[in-house]
Amino acid sequence: MRTLHERADVIPLIAEVFREFGFEGTSLSRITEKTALGKGSLYHFFPGGKEEMAGAVLAHVDAWFEREVFAPLRDDPPDVAIARMWRAVDDYFRSGRRVCLVGAFALDETRDRFAAVIAGYFTRWIAALRDALVRRGWEARAANDSAEEAVLGIQGALVLARAMRDDAVFGRALARLRARLA
Amino acid sequence: MRTLHERADVIPLIAEVFREFGFEGTSLSRITEKTALGKGSLYHFFPGGKEEMAGAVLAHVDAWFEREVFAPLRDDPPDVAIARMWRAVDDYFRSGRRVCLVGAFALDETRDRFAAVIAGYFTRWIAALRDALVRRGWEARAANDSAEEAVLGIQGALVLARAMRDDAVFGRALARLRARLA
DNA sequence: GATATCATGTACCAATCGGTACACTGCGTC
DNA sequence: GACGCAGTGTACCGATTGGTACATGATATC
């Protein structure tokens, strides 16, 4: 049996707030509003305050991608894993309507707070995709180039889709990138 | 004869602050620190306060790209203008060490404050590049696709370069994108 | 049914936020 | 040399910030 809330339940809600307002733009009052949790509960779950909340959210995102994308890329047959990656990416980012928190944090001074997690997220993604391409028979250099291009293209597509309020641009970008890895 | 400072002189300094800390993370005290200008002067130049400062900075960025990139793409021979664009982009973003303010603002709720400028910046960039490709003989659909891909690739490369603290990834991305437009 | 722990709401804190008011200085104009 | 104004510094405002303290409520264990 469990009480009304636990740490794990509230992390996705806090993630939404950070995604919408960024690290600096996210205030405890906004988190309180979104989660319907008072400061008492929040500091009970996250004694380190706002920084620990953001860290937990980043870890949550990282774990999701590790499980749904990176690990399959490493362990499953390349074709299967890559197809799964494109599906996961389209789902996770809601076809361009949802922002990548890691990418967003990377752009301002927030990066320095979470440098290791942020760098690790992209490094592992690219490495896993590159290795999958190599296992599929690609030459190492080409594989690394294309892996980099795919990951960076997703980030760029998210920026553009949000800037222009046009999800279609995200769909087109994903289709192009997918075709290039085929 | 002029006094020590005028509006035009401080805009680039304020731009650096917004680039580093984002809109929410930029406080008047940080702007004061960077510009060595008191609130008196700042509100003399920008009566609308922080929002007007950010607006002026965005307009300044927009004007730079309009002059150095978009207009040449529209008016000059396509090959010349596109070569110039790649040079301008590499210079402006300091080979990946400088962030795109418009892209950064697009990612959080700051976008809604400056929706028109932000959307316009990317829309005009893509349109100008697409038309240059068409004038060069490309088919309309392919031209639009490639223009979108180039602009989005630049944004993604900036995110990745900052996230991984690795300028080389920006250089490689630019080379790939350039080759694809050749 | 007493106890310990998890979870919660409220009151409060100093510091900082964006913004305003205003007195002042230095300069060019007449 | 009086005037006007662009530019400046300082003091101040209420509101909000992230964070702390603590008393209370609920729950599971024994």
List keywords for this structure.
mainly alpha; 182 residues; homodimer; Tetracycline Repressor, domain 2; DNA-binding; 10 helices
Explained architecture:
Chain A has a domain at about 55-180: Tetracycline Repressor, domain 2 (Orthogonal Bundle), CATH 1.10.357. In chain A, about 80% of the residues lie in helices and about 0% in strands. The first copy, chain A, is built from 10 helices and no strands. Chain A has helices at about 5-25, 30-35, 40-45, 50-75, 80-90, 100-105, 110-115, 115-135, 140-165, 165-180. The interface of A and B includes residues 25, 122, 151, 162 and 172 of A. Chain B binds a DNA duplex (30 and 30 nucleotides) through helix 3.
